[in-house]
Amino acid sequence: MAGVSTEAKTSRRRGLWRLAGLGALSGLLAGYAALATAELVSAAVRPESSPVVAVGGATIDRTPAAVKDWAIRHFGTNDKLVLQLGILGVLTLLALALGALAAGYRRIGAAGVLVFGLVGGLAATSRPDSTSVADALPSVAGAVVGALLLYHLVGRLQSGRPSAPVEVPPGEEGVTTPDGGDPGHSYGAGWDRRGFVVAATAAAAASTGIGLLGRSLNGSQGQNAVASRRRITLPAPASAAAPIPKRAALRIKDVSPFMTPSQDFYRVDTALVVPKVDANSWRLRIHGKGVTRETTVSFADLLRMPLIERNITLACVSNEVGGPYVGNARWIGVRLADLLRQCGVRPPSKGGPADQLVARSVDGMTIGSPVEDVMDGRDAMLALGMNGEPLPFAHGFPVRMVVPGLYGFVSACKWIQDIELTTFDDYDPYWVKRNWARRAPIKTQSRIDTPKPFARPGAGSVMVAGVAWAQHRGIDKVEVRVDDGPWRRADLASEDTTDTWRQWSFPWKATSGGHTLTVRATDRTGQTQTDKRTRTIPDGASGWHSVVVTVD
């Protein structure tokens, strides 16, 4: 009898595992259907309302600055892809868990899917760019479909009758299974195999078709924007950039090119989906304190205004010492100070009541810039073009802000649609609310591009080279130190403008062994880079860049 009881327990255990496994598969299919449905519905609302994007955006909004900084440092411009893959991974695990739960508690499992749909809906409507409760529809609709499918599939697992009784172990008489069955029958022995396979296959196929249709429709929504960009011909600037000096670009292998190609220009922002805005329908509103003539301008209006063309180096505040998030490009646009003066705006130094300009993006991002800096004579602009063509979508098409000398998080609003004049006391923009600085001029920095860290150059003449930048101040000198030796002056390439970086080189007579190469720069104000290392938060990293090499 004891042997029979052991066999019964083993049979029940196997049945439980089978039931849980099939339930987990049901949960996975239900989650797939939910996401596919949400993708389709988001095409009717807006692509940014899809649950993965909405939850991802909400995650970014609530992530501590130190964690964001870590993500950018380790994943670079792939940080958004990593986040989305992480969300999909978590959703997959949750779907598997809810499916396994539903195998024993059918209604509770389905209800769990609905709960996560509500979470996605709340995330969508809490985003800064959300303007309607309709943003919750994709998540809610997807959750309803997923819950119904899970309930149906698990029903196929519980619909059959067991085929052969087994002896009930002592003490379990009268006990029922989670689905109301009799423990005297093996779990899952009589499940509707054919019905489950047919339903699961049909659900997978339908979900794939729905998801592809939704993705296609979402992609087509940007076609008008793509077409509008293709039709744009940038007029000749009223004030063209001066020719780049011949000796501004050094011909040294592995040194960053003086002009950064658009496709290689760094991108650091919070947009999981790159906005695609039709230039024909784009409008920019200028309003707020000190604005005596509130104005709304179109893209065509900007094209008719006098344009300036300038080479300007931009830098991200998340750039670590020696990091890659800095680039130099040729920008063309409307001088922002001229446009503000047309609206009656005066800087604080001339009695203006507003000291902060808050730029708002179509994706809800807010960036605050000092009005004084924007109007102090520097070439701050509403940029329409980059490197001789309309702005790429990833870099702000149709219009973005560019302010020389300020880190991007306090100046470089992409996909801009609104400018409000206010004060620093009255309003905290997105990054300030997350403990970043209100004002952040770019710090004087330098970087060694060659040799690379842990390189093994041969003994003899080795060219050490790189770039240095101090926008709106200019680079006066660059110095290199080998190990703990004296600082030696490097050769500077010709300067284009004070708003662009400057290449430098240093011929080093390398001797065998391990060495540490260090660089520092001094700007035109006489300020030399500090050796004190600081984090990027709150107003940019500082310190000297060093590389360790081994000379063979």
Give an overview of the whole structure.
This protein is α+β, with helices and mostly antiparallel strands and about 550 residues long. It is about 35% helix and about 20% strand. It has eleven helices and 18 strands. The strands form four sheets. Strands 2-1-10-5-6 form a five-stranded mixed beta sheet. Strands 3, 4, 7, 8 and 9 form a five-stranded antiparallel beta sheet that branches. A hairpin with a 2-residue loop joins strand 7 and strand 8 (about 390). The chain is globular. The model is unreliable at about 160-170 and about 170-190 (pLDDT under 50).
Name the features.
552 residues, alpha+beta, five-stranded mixed sheet
Task: Spell out the blueprint of helices and strands.
Blueprint: H1 2-45, H2 51-62, H3 65-75, H4 79-104, H5 106-125, H6 137-158, H7 193-220, H8 223-230, E1 283-288, E2 295-298, H9 299-304, E3 307-315, E4 326-335, H10 336-342, E5 356-361, E6 366-370, H11 371-374, E7 381-386, E8 389-390, E9 400-402, E10 416-422, E11 445-450, E12 460-469, E13 475-482, E14 488-489, E15 491-492, E16 502-510, E17 513-523, E18 545-551
Parallel strand pairs: 1-10
Antiparallel strand pairs: 1-2, 3-4, 4-7, 5-6, 5-10, 7-8, 7-9, 11-12, 12-16, 13-14, 13-17, 15-16, 17-18
